[in-house]
Amino acid sequence: MIHLRGEGASPGIAIGPAYFLASRMTVAERRILRRDRAAETARLDEAVVSADEQLDRLERVLADEKGPGAELVQAHRLMLRSPEIAGESRRLILDECLGAEWAVTRALDKVRAAFSRITDPYFRERAGDFESVGERLLRTLLGLPEWRAERPGAGSIAIAVDVAPLDPFHLRAAGVAAIVSQNGGSSSHAAIVARALELPYVVGVKQLAGQVVSGAQVIVDGGRGDVIVDPSEQTLETYRARMVALEQRTARLLCERDLPATTTDGVAINLGANLESLVGVAGVRAAGADGIGLFRTEFLYLERPDLPTEEEQYQDALSVLKAVGGLPVTFRTLDLGGDKLPLSIKMPRGPNPALGVRSIRFSIDQPDIFRTQLRALYRASGAGPMRIMLPLVSSVTELRRALAICAAVRDDLSAEGVPHDPAVPIGIMIETPSAVLTADLLAEHADFFSLGTNDLIQYACAADRENADVAHLRNPLQPAVLRLLKHAIDAAAHAQLPLSVCGDMASNPSFTWLLLGLGLRDFSMEPRAIPVVKAIIRRSSMDEARAFAARALASPDEEQTARLIEAAMDAKFGADLAALVSAANA
Ligand code: PEP
Ligand code: MG
Description:
Distance between the termini: 24 Å
Strand order of the largest sheet: 1-8-7-3-4-5-6-2
Bound molecules: phosphoenolpyruvate, magnesium ion
């Protein structure tokens, strides 16, 4: 039995056989000089010939064995030389001066996107064949050994080096029971999606390679960050019993779903849901949410070859508003960049993507894309109460530019006679230290604030949210983070501006007292966290929460604050709720 530790990224317990996800090759963007194009296409042609020879050998072996597979290899040979792989890669080298590996990667992205829109499961599955062929070609170009693709079985534990934001959707569809990865952070978008799908996930397990073999039995505890390989029978029994107990406690909490989130001294708290796609919209009411406090619209743009049209975005917004039937929805405008890279737009990555052209910066740089989205949102504004939220605003000047684009869109719609509500509130995410420190100035231009603690923590602690090596520095309880939160909350209160929190801190019941005590009355979180957060609120008074927040603010470091929280939770809530809190404590 081997016990590995990582960071809990999505709570829940799963037990199953290990399945290694082929590490997706990460190829750096490389451009070539125009005069080098002939040499680069020659490199590509050579690699195609060599990959074809590998397949030819494989085909002959399979044909000699009279086993299945020879026909599949024949198909792979055709795919290799197809217009989609060899043809498109060649075109990208000649027309766009891309390096051969980068050209193959881009060609594969396009194929992947095209397949993702096919609904027929049989044809959709063929995407895996193209992936395999493309991977073979890349490995040949890079001089790496041959590689074989497999598919995870239902109930397996996916073991990966890196996990992309949309991978959890695909893994869930394949029936995978949990994910473990070597890299990544618990506030990465892959982790956010895994939590939304209730797929247990542990990130940053450094010793993965060499410790787990394919098919080995693995226990994943996504709340505590534990990964146990080849568990003893006794350990298996313990975890099976914990799985059952957790399910029972969660079911008990759901009984309180429709009761108000009001403290024992009568303060009403608003609990919204965070959503990434239309898929989870039905779960918003099921969780007892008061609305959608954060709709991450950018997920509509990922994994597709073209930009969504105004009509498509309008229909999407309409569906969301209708699905929650009258509950308020906060649509956040495009927050692309960092780990959310669309296929259809060439995002300027720059030397440090987290500090580069992302989010509102990108929308201001590409006003056509921004305007299309704003038009769609405004057009949907008659269908239900809604707000528009701008991500990553970092200065008043930037906010003024973004608001000017919003105003121009409203003017256009009015001039065209298109029905819309010009009074839709426009607010901003407070997720950079500069926004916190100028919150009083920003408040003069915004209709509301929402604290984005995921980004705020990465920028405050100077620790990339994607990088597992600095996970220990990225701590929500770091005094710097608590002081920034307090500063922003006080500034919003002084300006009498509505303020909510929609970063992952809101989803973590360990932080509920702290956030309440700091002055927050409006939370938005992953839907499944709502019942446990509501249970805590309904059993707490504001006096308790305020006293606790004062102690946390006076604490000299994050470790002492974490101990304070643990002791307070145990003393107040006893074993039952405390167990749920620690299980949710990703
Ligand atoms: C945040 O940064 O806290 C946030 C809610 O936005 P995202 O996680 O999508 O960056
Ligand atoms: Mg953010």
